[in-house]
Amino acid sequence: MDPLTLTVLSGGLNILGMGLNYSAQMKQRRAILRRAEFQRDMADLNSRFSMLSAESAIKKGYQSMSNLRLETKQLTGNQRLALAAQGIDIDSGSAKDIQEETRALSKRDELMIKSNAYKQSLGFKIDAKNQRMQANMNMISARTDAKNIANNANAQTMFSAANMGLEYFGG
Predict the structure, then answer these.
(1) Which DSSP state fits 12?
(2) What is the CA radius of gyration of the chain?
């Protein structure tokens, strides 16, 4: 082959190599962004589930409080029946004190149930917020990585083309 044909062929192969390299880097850039978008979407979904769990914790707490109130009324009613069956005045003295103590202990338990429900709910809400924040950080990082890849690909292509031009056109 004559030298001109070899030079043109070599230049064409270099251009093809630059194009393939550039294409591969752009695919890598898109893959990074897609992965981050997927992770963001999954974090958003998990965040929503955490918020549903937070709401559920509050509802369960109120249901437990309601159940406790019912149990307390039943217990107080049974106490009154047992005391009345013994001929004791149920609205005074020790009989009254027993019923008031039962109600007070029940009220304390209700407050504990409510407090625990709100603490559990807060934990779910914090988890939801953390997931959203992590997803945002992942997107920022992915965009930075993708931008760096694009900048590097552009620079490599530009410098390779300039170098090839100098090499072939006598620079």
Answers:
(1) H
(2) 37
31: left (phi > 0), else alpha (psi -120 to 50), else beta? alpha
CA dist., res. 112 & res. 65, Å (int) = 9
Average pLDDT over residues 46-60: 97
Quick one: pLDDT at residue 171?
53
Among candidates 60, 66, 57, which has minimal Cα distance to 110? Answer: 66
Query: 30, 153 in Cβ contact below 8 A?
Result: no
Distance (Å, whole) CA 20 – CA 154: 13
3 — pLDDT class (breaks 50, 70, 90): confident
Distance in Å from the first CA to the final CA of the chain: 24
> Quick one: average pLDDT of 86-106?
94
pLDDT, position 84:
93
Q: What are phi and psi of 74, to 5 degrees?
A: -65, -45
CA angle 62, 66, 72 (to 5 degrees): 140
DSSP codes, 112-154: HHHHHHHHHHHHHHHHHHHHHHHHHHHHHHHHHHHHHHHHHHH
